[in-house]
């Protein structure tokens, strides 16, 4: 399989090229030159004997990475090792819940990896793939990551201590939860370099974006194709749980990586109807509901900080897969701050796959956390709550339609990472015995720390970053 940019450049790139880069040289994102479909025979065999999560990952990745790049036995080993350290052998757990109208939904717990967000699912495998290539060619790569909360820690866990790899992470100081911060600054391996910056997650994307492309430098934010590719497996796996009947899936959305993976699953032959929930940062909801592309603007802080994003860069992939590189290049002409309307036919096509979107405000998010606890004695994180709120709203409109499979809601992180949201939702006052001063926070607090370096307001972040990159790059 060959890769190219969403804007038409970088044709003929290998998977390895796409894996070891960030943005393509024309500013676009890497995508496969042709989108494969999941073979019909495979789908029908899955109808009779549902596969494990690992099997689905293997079959999906095989479609995008040829044996010439990664031998099948190596790929299988990487996948088995990646998910071995998850805290459940099923890798994904599903929880049945009901809402205030008595409608049911199923929470898909994508938080059983080391850092307890869905980022672990793709990144733990990405780490193994990187290690394979770096050791094969005896070279070095520097990974550059900007994080609004969860990517940093998941990426650090995936590559800490690995030979031939250094990782530099920038996070917005004071805008992530204590658990998220401790997960990053309590890692002492020499190849991990963490910066606390005085800005928003979109601010710190600026010096990062300016650093690309550069030889030996790569991103494992969800601009990286490999993450999207691996995440396709979530949607395929869920579909196999329902014998590949069409299912509704509600997705908490930030940079739209998860959403693009869902779209790809659909385009590859697995029927999933997607619903996207955003917090107050509603760029993606505007695109889906109104066909309006308005990147940039002030990032609003919410409890669902991993979704506090105004540059949801994966929208570019969503638009690409529903049109072509010419259309995308013309929509994205105005690189930094753009506001435009996408073509009407493209918007209609988008709505065929992504059935709806909802911006969920903070009071509704907190109310949803509270209600879910009251009704189910089950705690959800504030990101998950946005999608539960959307699902609840849709269920209300669909009362009486019971023949379909129950809708699925993606839980993107464990509530343990966000005790502040639980307190704001007043869970302790409604008899929530969930340990808010929980084990996870206490455990992290007792770990040895490595204080982060700083990027202060007014300093030249790009320069600081360049200096760090050259420091870690072998001469
Ligand atoms: C990263 C993240 C999101 C947003 O996912 P995207 O793929 O960027 O849309 C949502 N919730 C949590 C907990 C996350 O860590």
The second-level CATH architecture of the domain at 93-114 and 231-436 is 3-Layer(aba) Sandwich
Helical content class = 40-55%
Low-confidence parts lasting 5 or more residues at pLDDT below 50? none
Major sheet summary line: 6 strands, mixed
Ions, cofactors and other bound molecules: pyridoxal-5'-phosphate
CATH topology of the domain at 93-114 and 231-436: Rossmann fold
Q: Could you give the order of strands across the largest sheet?
A: 3-4-14-9-10-13
State mean pLDDT (0 to 100 scale). 93
The fraction of residues in strands falls at: 15-25%
Distance between the termini: 33 Å
Report the top-level CATH class of the domain at 93-114 and 231-436. Alpha Beta
Total count of strands: 15
Task: Give the helix/strand class.
Answer: alpha/beta
The best one-word shape is globular
| Rg calc | 21 Å
Question: If helices are DSSP runs of H or I spanning 4 or more residues, what is the number of helices?
Answer: 19
State the gist of this model.
This protein is α/β, with parallel strands linked by helices. It has 19 helices and 15 strands. It has a domain at about 95-115 and about 230-435: Rossmann fold, CATH 3.40.50.1100.
